[in-house]
Amino acid sequence: MVKYNGIACITGASSGIGLATAKALQKLGYRLLLLARRLELLEAAKLELENLGAKVYVAQLDVRDRVAVTHVFSSLPEEWKCIDVLVNNAGLALGFSKFYEGDPEHWDTMIDTNVKGLLYVTRAVSPGMIARNSGHIVNIGSIAGKEVYDKGNIYCGTKFAVDAITKSMRIELAEHGIRVTSIHPGAVETEFSIVRFEGDASRAKTVYEGFDNLLAEDIADAIEYVVSRKPHININELVIMPQAQASAGSIIRKKV
Ligand code: NDP
Ligand code: 8X3
Question: What CATH number is attached to the domain comprising 202?
Answer without folding.
Answer: 3.40.50.720
